[in-house]
Design goal:
Length: 249
């Protein structure tokens, strides 16, 4: 069992001035997930009549991308290739002080405490992250379209992006290039995605810029902190797609 000091960002609402608050946690089991530890803290706060800490979560199994904490200066904490819900307290030691902040970026405004508004990602997806299917009766069965194994694997790897925003929170420029490039790549590599390829990359990059995300300066921190191991090669692919699309007009 561990005793911990938590320093947590508290902010009542989007317009309030936030600040770090300190809480003591006793007898934390190393087998708890980080979110379970936060649940216990919140129960203790409620018992004391204190407003519980707002944080996002949903699936708690690493697939929805909702849990978005910046723990000890790292998106999703000190472990690699995991989300906060998959992070276990055994990664910390008795007596540790843990700092917990929201994902910070201009395009991810704080709603309350550790909860941020990531609807900018939804708007980027809506700008082009889809394929249109001909439903006139001539629809081709997707399984009947041959796809090179190499391309299928690369598309699948890109599709593993869960839209968590860790890449943005980690990037010193708050760039969303890793996220957008994963979403562009998952279609660019497949024949089904070729039809709308030109509009897709132009519209998604346009929307990314409109939302106020920063530029990519090839630092690569996003790749290190991405819980799904999305590769920087997707950014290179998106840049090529963007160039071709721009030349095509
Ligand atoms: S690229 Fe990785 S870090 Fe960025 S949103 Fe997708 S899964 Fe999260
Ligand atoms: S709660 Fe779904 S990924 Fe963490």
């Amino acid at each position: 069992m561990m005793n911990l000091t938590l320093k947590i960002w508290r902010q009542a609402n989007a317009n309030a001035k936030g600040k770090m608050e300190t809480y003591q946690m006793q007898e934390v089991s190393p087998d708890m997930s980080f979110l379970e530890m936060m649940d216990v803290l919140n129960e203790e706060l409620i018992d004391k009549g204190i407003d519980p800490v707002a944080f996002d979560h949903d699936c708690r199994e690493g697939i929805c991308g909702m849990c978005s904490m910046f723990i000890n200066g790292e998106a999703h904490g000190p472990d690699r290739l995991v989300t906060t819900c998959q992070l276990h307290m055994r990664k910390f030691k008795d007596g540790d002080t843990i700092t917990i902040e929201p994902f910070r970026a201009k395009a991810f405004p704080v709603i309350k405490d550790l909860t941020v508004d990531r609807s900018s990602f939804d708007r980027i997806q809506q700008a082009g992250g889809f394929v249109s299917v001909n439903t006139s009766g001539n629809t081709q069965d997707a399984n009947a379209i041959p796809i090179e194994k190499h391309d299928a694997d690369k598309a699948f790897d890109a599709a593993a992006c869960i839209g968590c925003g860790a890449c943005v929170a980690t990037c010193k420029n708050a760039s969303a290039m890793l996220f957008v490039s994963a979403k562009v790549s998952q279609y660019a590599l497949l024949p089904q995605g070729k039809v709308e390829a030109t509009d897709r990359v132009l519209n998604m990059v346009n929307q990314m810029d409109e939302e106020g995300f920063g530029n990519c300066t090839n630092t690569g921190a996003c790749e290190v902190e991405c819980p799904k191991g999305i590769s920087l090669e997707n950014i290179a692919r998106m840049n090529r797609e963007y160039l071709y699309a721009s030349l095509k007009g």
